[in-house]
Amino acid sequence: MTTRIKPESLTLIRAKILPPAPPSHLLQRDKFDDLIQESEPASLILVQAPAGYGKTTTVADRLSALDTRCAWFRLDEQDNLSEQFAFYLAHTLNEATAGACSETIKTLSRQSYPSLQTFLTDLLSELPLEGDPLYLVLDDYHLMANPEIHEGITFLLRHHPPYMTLVLLTRTTPPIGIAQLRMQGRMLEINSRDLSFSADEAQHYLENRLRFEVSRESIERANRRVEGWVSALQLLAATANTSAEFGSHVDQLHKGNQYIFDYFDELLRHTVSEEQRKFLLRTSVLDRFNAFMVMRIAEESEGQALLVNLLNIGLFIVPLDQSGLWFRFHPLFSAYLRHMQSCILPQETRCLHQRACDAWQEQQMYEEAAHHAVLSQDQERITNILLRQGREFFKEGQFSLLQRCFDGLDRSVIADKPVLTLLRAWVAQGQYQFKEVESWLKAAETRLQGHCSDEEWNAIVGEFNAVRAQVAMNLDNPSQAMEYAKSSMSHEPVYLPTSRIAASSVYAESLFVQGHLKEALSRMQETEQLALAEHAHPNVIWALCQQSEISVAQGYLQKAYNIQEKALQYAEEHHLHHLPILEFLHRIRGQIMWEWHHLESAEKCALKGIEILEDQGERWFIQNYILLAKVAQTRGRQSLCADYVQKVHKMLASGDYHIDWTANAHATMLTYWDAVRDQDSIQRWLTVAPECDLEATTNHFTQCNARNWARAYISLGNYEKALPILSAIQNVAEQYSLKTDSNRNLIHIAQLHWQNENREQAMQHMSDALKLASTTGAVGSFLRIGKVLINILKALINDNQLEEMELQRAERLIQLSQQQRDFSRAIRITLDEAIIQDIIDRPDVPELIRTSPLTRREWQVLSLIHAGLSNDQIAEHMKVAPTTVKTHIRSLYQKQNITHRSEAIELARNLLSKIQGE
């Protein structure tokens, strides 16, 4: 030090040596407690992350929660003066150690020290050798640019007392011998990945800040887009006034956000040189990079050094693995850089992508090469990559990439090559562009037929027919699909090794939808073996998913679940988490979880499905939205369920979906409309609902579609139309052993008979449904009929008609149904004998019910009054004279001290609500 420190020259600002006050809406992040407590052997805790990750807030909160000694020094640029740094450091430690550094402070006030190291020697010698744990926190250490201070911190780390741990909060890597500390195991590191909010943390944070309800799906999507960056989540919360606005802001993030762009502008203005800025803009075209890639793209011989410098600056550059060799930009930073690149260096864009394409090919990373070939609009590069690697892209399920590649090629280029035509047709099929499929195949056939031998032509037609088979399957023409599939399987594949596998799969699927479950399962198992032999991973997963679906149809949900486990294990072993086909796997798993009433697991499956398909577009989320709507309704979250139903309704109106998807969607929409008593929507649905051939309901989706018609009629009280539908599809379900659909049909037949006052038939069908549920494990399908389930099950229990296993299931279903909220707030159950006995047995029943018990007829009259019937209507219903009804009413009123009809209605409502669970 060269400047004498005197008391009159420096004034202590106490706020600089106090931990910051916790902000409102503070999220408790106790996951860091163990990390901090277990850091005792470490000399240093390095908390390094860009701005806005909650470094200061998190460390201050957790040290406070641990109730440990803490010395906090908030640095600013003026603290680069060695004498000021020493002054505040001494006071910081003195405050935390109850005056242990008082002599050093006195010395500072009287004389100067020749160096910071000399000062630190006195300071450390004054501290006791033993004591309770002490954390010395230097906040915003990235502001320190004085080499003497860095040397002083290095000295401090070598000689501090064993109970002291230094905590540096910084955006950049401090030059204090980090590598050596890491190798010696004397340092604990907390980085941006550690500080990023998890999905659960993001949910807690946003729920405390938002004035409206946001779905878990929206929160997870937001957190994925910002990668847990707290400041970005805070911005979303501050700028959205409704859930729809929140969702819109999240959807726009990939294009950029002006507030975030302003922040990055300011960040780069203060931290990088012009050379570094251009380097960032040029390398921003890369989704991931290493030193080789940035040198090739930026054409900088010093690219490695530039990259190292940028990493040390503390920008939003994320390491991809522990090797420290591969990196990527944070997605929001990437959006900003690409926007700036298009504004500042637009003339370089095509050339940058061409360089990237060639560099990736040199490293045999063809997926990235294809991506840049498309962005450079270079047909020659695209064609060469597809001819070389297109089959592998297809085997890996990279349909989105293939689509982008083919969109960049002329039709004639594709039609000239059978393999390109096949790939293009399969991509179109996967996008449900069925007319396009035939157009591509015909164009190639016209172009190729006169230029190849009979053998070559037969091979081409055989493989083309595999695509046609799948299209026929998707157009609900299983007979034609089988013919195409048989034709394709009779030829050895030449252009796509997976053509025979696809044909085999279609053949099995056509058997499945025609109700031949055992043969379909056997064929699908053969398809799995064919796919395994070719290492065709998507085909293996697809075959296992179809086996699972067949098992569900057979009523073996546990077996289906086990097959899904096998598929998940296969995906894990082969690192297939990126495959879009995995969405199908998670979705059907979620459907089983919903049926078993494992709602949290069902929700997680749906959210995982959406995450997998995030880059494919929202059109493909519909099945997962349906599942989330079912979960929301079962949980009683009405506004959330309504949002999903509305979203699904709009998607159906603007898209063309397979009957499997539409039937599932309609089933959920009908459940919601019935719950809110929206009979107008149900009536409108009947005018546009898909037609159904009752004799052809040989699979789960045609069964579901027909059942939807019956359920709509039941909701409208039109039982004479509903019963023939349910009876017909139940006959088909029994004929083809569609056990799960049979289970669901029986539940709705029981509901219909009960609401139509056919008590004995209702109880018999519900008893049969409970027996079947011992195999299927069904729960969700029972709860779907609403509170009337309580009536039927209590009647069954009251009549002692159930075996032990069915009795336990009935009691659980009653409990779950009572917990389920009715969106209309209406009383859906009626006063029958079982319900009356339950009411009487309850400890919270009104005293007059006990002391002046009602007769069976009086209970019946009370129930009909509650239902809104007039005296004449009650008389007609009970088949007695109106005077008899009046006598029953008079007796009822006297016993219960009732003077007005409204009081009788309220009494019935109160009694029934206790049983219904409202």
Walk me through this protein's architecture:
With 918 residues, the chain is mainly α. Among the domains are: 14-195, Rossmann fold, CATH 3.40.50.300; 199-253, no CATH class; 256-344, Winged helix-like DNA-binding domain superfamily/Winged helix DNA-binding domain (Arc Repressor Mutant, subunit A); 658-826, Serine Threonine Protein Phosphatase 5, Tetratricopeptide repeat; 833-916, Arc Repressor Mutant, subunit A (Orthogonal Bundle). It contains 49 helices and 7 strands. Strands 2-3-4-1-5 form a 5-stranded parallel beta sheet, with helices on both faces. The protein has a two-stranded antiparallel sheet with strand order 6-7. α6 links the parallel β3 (134-139) and β4 (164-170). α25 runs antiparallel to α26 (478-489). The longest helix is centred in the middle third of the chain and has 21 residues, at 454-474. It is flat and about 110 Å long.
In short:
This protein has 918 residues and is mostly helical. It is built from 49 helices and 7 strands.
